[in-house]
Amino acid sequence: MHTNVEISRTARAALFRDRLGDALEASREPAARIARDAGIDRSTLAQLLGAQTPRLPGGHALAGLAKALGVTTDWLLGLVDAPQPATAIIDASVQITDVPFAPADQNLLSWLEEARGYKIRHVPLSLPALVKTEAVLRHEYDAAVGRTTEQAIADSERRLAYAREDGTNFEVCMPRQSVEGFARGEHIWRNLDAASRRAQLRQMATLLDELYPGVRVHLFDFRHIHAVPLTVFGPLRAAIYAGQSYLVFNSAQHVQALAWRFDQLIRAADVQAHEVAEHAAAWAARVR
Q1: Residues 272-275: contacts with CB under 8 Å, at least 24 apart
Q2: What integer pLDDT is reported at residue 97 of this predicted model?
Q3: What local confidence, expressed as pLDDT, does residue 1 receive?
Q4: Distance (Å, rounded) from C-alpha 163 to C-alpha 183?
Q5: Of 52, 83, 114, the domain-final residue
Q6: Are residue 199 and residue 281 in the same domain, yes or no?
Q7: Comparing C-alpha atoms, which of 272, 155, 130 is closest to residue 211?
Q8: Greater confidence, 242 or 65?
Q9: Which end of the chain has the lower number of beta carbons within 10 A, N or C?
Q10: What is the number of structural domains in the chain?
């Protein structure tokens, strides 16, 4: 159904209020942050959302809100049905970024810095880099092309420092088979000695207990639901790891869709964040 552009000012104000509320909810960001990014007072945003008699904002506030929410002013005003123009979705939505090696890539670190203060959603390729021991990183990067072991260790330390900052909101969802396979020394871990695997799982348990709730790791059953390596950097961008490249999504629509997909993984998790440290410690005890 196409929006009728000839509606009354009162009806348009009501439609604006509804769409503003929908866009704010879809952004999954605090109203105070959206108001700040839009260059308006938090009270102004509250009035636009909650006034008994809907009203339209001024041009400056309208433009600021559209930019902060990643939608068009025409959509907020009910003039079009699509939140973004088709050209913007096509031109800005996807980029391909080459990477030397995914787990210790400079692109991810710079994107993390840009998204400081936002919620980070992450599906790792293996174990989360911020909990890895030096022995595990040396095992991973011994034959890596484009990244030295020392660079990988330094990058892991930077991610851990990032995770320890006040206000961190870092959520990870990964297959529990990744943890269990690591404990058993399967796949790329088959030549990693038991002592190193046991130490890694103990460190994972210790760090996840220390960092909770700023860092929350959930485990899902890969037999029931599948996921690719993915990171969503607040509302700014999302990146899917695809071999030697990242598929980087910049449009609000795609970022929101991938954030929603991640949240579905959280709902499907059978080991919750407050249980994972204990789960890792239990697997460490089984390593022989």
Answers
A1: 272/218, 273/171, 273/212, 273/213, 273/216, 273/217, 273/218, 274/212
A2: 61
A3: 38
A4: 24
A5: 83
A6: yes
A7: 130
A8: 65
A9: N
A10: 2
Rounded CA separation 114/162 (Å): 12
Q: Please give the Cα distance from 178 to 175 (Å, whole number).
A: 6
With residues binned 3-state (H G I as helix, E B as strand, rest as coil), the percentages for the chain, rounded to 5, are: 55, 15, 35
| 116 lies in the same domain as 246 | yes
Q: Both 266 and 125 in a single domain? A: yes
- In this predicted model, what pLDDT tens digit does every residue of 145-192 receive, in sequence order? 666 888 889 889 999 999 999 999 999 999 999 999 999 999 999 999
- HSE of 29 in the Cβ direction (CA atoms, 13 Å)? 28
What integer pLDDT is reported at residue 12 of this predicted model?
85
Domain housing 69? 9-83
What is the mean pLDDT of the segment spanning 194-201? 97
Identify the CA nearest to 70 among candidates 24, 112, 104. Answer: 24
Q: Give, to the nearest 10 degrees, the angle between helix 273-286 and helix 176-184.
A: 20
Residues 43 and 177 in one domain: no
Measured CA to CA in angstroms, residue 133 lies from 25, 117, 137, 146, 204 at distances of 39, 26, 6, 20, 9
CA dist 172 and 169 (Å) reads 10
d(CA 249, CA 259): 11
DSSP 8-state symbol, 214: T
The token pair at 158 is: 């930077």
Domain boundary among 83, 107, 130: 83
Q: Among 97-106, 109-118, 200-209, 245-254, which stretch is predicted with the lowest mean pLDDT?
A: 97-106
The mean-pLDDT minimum among 92-96, 193-197, 207-211, 277-281 falls in: 92-96
Question: Residue 217 is inside which H or E element, if any?
Answer: strand 215-220
Residue 229 confidence (pLDDT) above 90 = yes
